[in-house]
Each structure stands twice: as C-alpha cells, then as structure tokens.
Amino acid sequence: MKAVMKNVSETISKSKPVLYEVPLKPMKEFVEEAWEIISPVWPLENVIACNPLQGLESLGFEKAIQKGFHLFEKSDLPEPLCNINRETIKWCQAFFDRGQSTFPMPGREKGLYQAWLELVVYDKKLHHNDASKIQQIKDMPRNSQVAISHLCKLLKIPYSLTKEVLILLLTSMPGWSGYIKYRTEWDPVFSSKKNISLADDYLAMRLLMVLLLWPDISEYIQNSKLYSVGVDFVDDKMSKMKNLEEQYSSTLLPILRYQVKAGEINPRKQSFNAQLVFCIDVRSEPFRRALESVGSYETFGFAGFFGLPIKIQKISQEGFDSCPVLLDSQHIIKEELSCCEKKSEKYLKGDAILKNIKRLYHGLKYSFSTHFGLVETVGFWSGLWMMLKTVFPTFAITLKNKSIALIKPNVLLKPDVEKRLGLSNEVTGIDFVDQCQYAANALIMMGLSQDFAPVVVFCGHGSTTQNNAFASALDCGACGGRHGGLNAQSLAAILNNAQVREWLSENKGIKIPKETVFIGAQHDTTTDSVALYADKECEQKLGDKLTKLKDDLFSARIKNNVHRSQQLGYFSNSQSSVRHCINRSQDWAQTRPEWGLSRNASFIVGPRSLTKNIILDGRSFLHSYDCKLDTDGKFLEIILTAPMVVAQWINSQYLFSSWNNVAYGSGSKITQNITGKIGVMQGNGSDLMHGLPLQSVYKDDLNPFHEPMRLLTVVYAPRAMIDQIIRRQACLQKLFGNGWVRLAVIDPDDQLSYVLKRDFTWEKN
Question: What is the pLDDT of residues 91-128, one digit of tens each?
C-alpha cells in the first residue's frame, strides 16, 4: 500500500496532472469538504448573525483571516467566471423566489438541478445555439451527485485540483452558496427533505455552466496563486484590532476586579418593587441601568427565548421557531385571544378581511395583465400616501394603525402553554413535567431562586422600523430573528401556575410567594417603549404597583432616549428625545433607525452586582449567573456553549462587516434591491449580500461607528470549574484555543482576574 501511495505521489508531482479517474478519495468527500468552508446565510424574514469565516474556525484566527482574504475578498475574478456567476444569479433568483416574480419557475418541485436542466436548453446565453453544447446538456445525468463526477471528468480536472475547483465555485459567490447551505442544513422545512440534495444540485449546475462557458478552468487553477501569503495584510489588521482590544480589556477588567474586592458581590438582601428579566442583548444593558436609577428595581439578563425551545403558531399565520437556531423546537405554542367572544369574532373577521385585501392587491400588482390598471385606479391615492409617509411619517403610521383598528380591534393575545390534542391529532403546548423543568432551569440559571418581588416581568424584545429589509436583524437572535414577547408570556404563564409553583417548592426548594405575579412584556429597542402583557385580572390584582411600574418604565425610556439620540448624532433634551426616536422608527427613508448591536465588545457572566456600578455604554451582553447555585457547573456550561456562541456569531458578523463591507457585509442600503423576498443584491445582478449594511456599522461612508474587536468573555466563577467545562467541550477549545474569543475569569476564591492563553494556561491579569 505504501508503494502504491508513493507512486501516486510521484505521479502527481509531475507536470502532467492526474485526472479524476484515480480513485483515492470519493467525490462526496471533496464536495463535503468544499461546503465546510461556507457559512450559512439566513433569509430576510429571520436574519441571524453568523461568522462569515465560520468554516475556518478550526484555524487560528490569524490564519483564518489570511485564508478568508484569498477566498472571499477576491477582486480580480477572471471574466469567464464573472459570466458564470451572472448566469447563476439569474437562475437562483428564479428558483428560490418566494412570490416576488410574476411567473414562478416551473418544475421547482423536482429540485434545482433537474428543474434547471429541463429549461437550460432554451437559454441561448449558455449554449449560444451550439448544437454540440445543447447535446451535452441533454446527455447530462439526471442525478446531481453522478453529474458532478461526470462533469469533472469531461472538464479533465486533475485529481489534485478537484477540491480547489469546487471551493472556487462556492467562494466566488458566498452569498448564494451560504443561502443554499442554510436551506440544506438549517431550514426546518427544507432540510428535512432528504431526497433532495440542494448542495449537490447547486454544484452540478455550476459545473455544467463551467463546461459550457469556461472549459479551461483547470488551467486557470494551476497557473493562479490562490493562497499566496498576505503577511502585511494580516499584520496590519491584527495590529489595529489588538490595540482596540487591549484598550478595552485594560479598562473593563480592573473595574470588575475592583467591584469584587470592594465587597460589592453580596447576597441579595434588599427588597424591590419589581424584578425584570431582560434579554442579554447589548441594547438592554443601558435601559436596565436607566430603570434601576428611577426606582427600586432589580434586573436580570437571560437569553431572550427564556429557555423555551418552542415553535409559535400565531392566529391564522404560518408557524415559526422561536428559539436559538442551535436548538430544535420541541413544542408548538398556539396564540389565543384573551377577550370576550364578541370582540374575538370581530378580530378574526377583520383579520380575514385585511388578508384578503392584501392578497388581492398583490395579485393585481404582480399579475402580468392587471398592474397597469392598478396604477390607473389607485395611483393618485398611492401618491398621496407616499407624500404623507415622507412629509409626516408619524401621522401617517398613526393614521394607518387607527384605520386597521377599526377593522381589526386591538386585543390582548396570549400563548396557550397547556398540552392539548388538536382536531388533526396535533399536540400543542408543553406537558406539566417539562413546564416544571423549564421553569426551574430558567430561575436557577439566572440566579433568581429566592427573595421574589411582588411583580416579576420577563421582557423579550423586538424592533419597529419602516422600509427596512434588515428589520429582523434588529430583533431577537435568541428567538430565531423574531420578537421575543410570546416567549416571555409563555414562561410567565408557566410560573403563574399554582401546581408548577408547588413542584418547584417541593423538588427544587424554590418558594415563590402567593402574591408574586409573573408578567410577560416586550421591549422595543428602537424606541425603548415597553409593552406589559397584563390582562384585566392581573391589573386588578396589582393595582397601583402596576401603575407605578408603567410610569417608571416611561421615565427610564426618556432617560435612555437622550443617550440613544446622542449616539445617533442628534443632541436632544428629555422632551424631544422620545419624539425623535419615534420619528426614526416610523420614517421610511431612515437608513439608521437604530444602531442595533453595533460596538458590542464583551459577554459578561455573573451576578448583576458585578456590573451594576459600571457604565458599560451598551457594549456588553449581560448574562446573570450565580456560581453558588451551580456547584457542578452544569448551567455555566450551557451559557458558554449556547448564548456565548450566539454572541460570538454576532460579534464576528459586526467585526467582518466593518473590516470589508463589500466582501463580508452588504454595502450601502441606498443601492440595494430585494431579490425573491429572501435577500438583497447590490444593483440588479450581484451576489446575494450576506452581512450587515454599511449604515449598521459606519457613521457615514468613511467613518466607522463599530470598533472591530473579538468578543471578550468575562466569567465570575472558579477557574477549576471553567477548566473542566473547556475540557468537555470541543467547541470551546476551538473558540478559545484558536483565538476567536478571549476569555477572562474573576475567581471568587482569590478575587483576582486571569486571562486564558491560547495554550489553555492562565495568566494573572
């Protein structure tokens, strides 16, 4: 065997390349290895932040950005490949369209490759009416896996370059490649269809285009320096980033260490008017500080799905997963009306009327024969509405909402968490045992297991913007790019159940007073308004306590709006700040309604007392945690392998979108166009843009707002516990050992801070 491998190695080293016929590695492995480099790209309806170099995280950070530069930042693609890319974009737009086009692409149920193969014989731009090329198309295998191997042979691709060719075809269009990876590995609907291999279909289509338009691709690969060393590039990037990281950590860590030494990390003794649990999102941190300053309130940070792996089924709408993409939803939670029968009937009728009107309008607008008549019929009114939205945006939105309320009244919607069997044998809700376990895990993990206030609010979050393709990027990533209010209501409903409370008391020692009421809520991160989902019974029970909470939430809103307005470059007083933030959320011409998670820099795990006296300036993910309640480190392990990983995705997306907004971001919003209702392109024919817009990370075209740096994770827990967790978790070994995340620990045993080096030894800070 050694002699055979030696002969093969000598043959490869000769000038004449070895063709693919040498059966050293199956084509399937080449395909899988090529796809590993690609990061998934979520559609606009639920944009999820993701590290664009996720496929290179097994490398050290420095090597990854060097390789990423040559894979994804190429600006000198050969013209034949650019032509192939343009043709690929055209067909991907047609196949993946979700209702934007007038006529859907026929045969889509057969899969990308087979549907395209039936139609491509009519595409003159690919075969130029060449009879031999048309015959090649007709002779192609109908199975995409077989076609990939067949095409590699026809193209005479050397065995040693097969993987490089596949990587080039994927990385030269990382947006569409990433969307296909999402559809095959992350989409809960499509990825379950095991009989359709979309990843193979895409590569087979690309290779056939190469055969038709660029049969000399092997020659290009052999003569080009795909991975030439870019030392100067890497050194410059790393030097600037490390300076920012050093400045930030040298300021943050001493302050946190001082809090510990000063004895600020004390058991909770004070009684509070209310306790509020917010998402760990960096936008929640300044609002929490503002709320704590206006009244007697204790705040906590917890992942915004509140530990419930659920799928939400809204009334008369399609369901969606409302949990981190790292988890699979385990339960279906249906939304129900919380009002009288008469009002419920009016709501449902109004909802049906509005849906029919919308369906009719879109049918006329996108129909081939009726859109001209539509312009003549409603053109004047559309023009008037556009003028109102432009000149008086707040008035226009208020008018729209009031008009909708006349047809469909505003009612309180709440989730039904009780386990039920539907008419179609569909099981909804959560069984009692799981309810108890989710409740216990959430309370212990966030450190809220005793000294409950009369009111405990679980506050999810979402955003409100107009004409914003990236609206879901401002929503809750822990809820799969959706609003988190229903998750908050679900956990509140579980903890208001007397039987669940009894179980918690008997089995976990968590004694919740009878007078304590749990309420779901939602924080609008664009305006800082907080909607409390309290029904009439709850309002009557709490009375003045609830009124006081609402007043203080509004005071905190005003206080934080001043800071938010100043961040956006608008210097306002307390009277105008709220109005200013509302106007930005309702202005359809506004490219920067809010900064989102820009300037995120750290992920801090510990009790609120660790950070309460520190101005973190909205740059920190704050996850509440009490190591005394977690002696075996089970909950800390969950925090580091789930919420922290999501925070690292967010941090990396902002970092790389700032470094190169064309290659890793999505460019300016001004020149973007939505394609297929799934993503955006620059102009009318670019790759699917897969990162953040320029306006999300830059103050203007030249001056950045986000400071690109790697996530600094700070944990208040014993080092020995963290060492054990890292030894158990390969993903943490990769992130910490390869320099993607920096880890610092403040050890409660000696009250000193330590920084984890990349060889997994600790250095006193």
Answer: 999 999 988 887 889 999 999 999 999 999 999 999 99
Q: Helix, strand, coil shares of the chain as percentages rounded to 5?
A: 50, 15, 35
Other CB atoms within 10 A of residue 330 CB: 13
Distance separating alpha carbons of residues 509 and 501, to the nearest angstrom: 10
CA angle 139, 28, 193 (to 5 degrees): 80
Please tell me the distance from the alpha carbon of residue 325 to that of residue 429, in angstroms, as a whole number. Answer: 20
pTM beyond cutoff 0.85: yes
81, HSE (Cβ side, Cα atoms, 13 Å): 19
Higher pLDDT, 483 or 266: 483
Residue 620: count other Cβ atoms within 10 Å of its Cβ. 24
Q: How confident is the model at residue 16 (pLDDT cuts 50, 70, 90)?
A: very low
What is the rounded distance in angstroms from the CA atom of residue 488 to the CA atom of residue 497?
Answer: 15
Per-residue pLDDT reduced to its tens digit, 531-551: 999 988 898 899 999 999 999
- Sign of CA pseudo-dihedral 383, 388, 390, 391: positive
Whether 366 has a pLDDT exceeding 80, the answer reads no
Q: Is residue 171 within 8 Å of 72, Cβ to Cβ?
A: yes
Instruction: Return the sign of the alpha-carbon dihedral for residues 76, 80, 85, 90.
Output: positive
Tokens 């130029």 sit on residue: 128
Residue with token string 């405990």: 456
Please tell me the distance from the alpha carbon of residue 104 to that of residue 95, in angstroms, as a whole number: 8
Which residue stretches of 186-337 are H helix? 198-213, 217-223, 231-261, 284-294
The residue length of the chain stands at 765
Alpha-helical runs (H) found in 367-410: 371-391, 393-407
How deeply is 516 buried, as exposed, middle or buried, from its count of CB atoms within 10 A (0-12, 13-18, 19+)? Answer: middle
Most confident of the following: 8-22, 166-180, 369-383, 671-685: 166-180
Look at residues 285, 301, 326 and name the one whose alpha carbon lies nearest to residue 597. Answer: 285
Specify the DSSP element, H or E, that contains 289. helix 284-294
User: What are the Cα distances from residue 530, in Å, to 95, 252, 279?
Assistant: 41, 30, 13
Distances (CA, A) of 52 to 36, 325, 369, 433, 679: 12, 16, 42, 40, 16
Q: Which helix (H) or strand (E) holds 134?
A: helix 131-138
Where exactly are the structural domains of the chain?
A: 17-229, 231-263+599-661+698-765, 271-338+412-594, 341-407
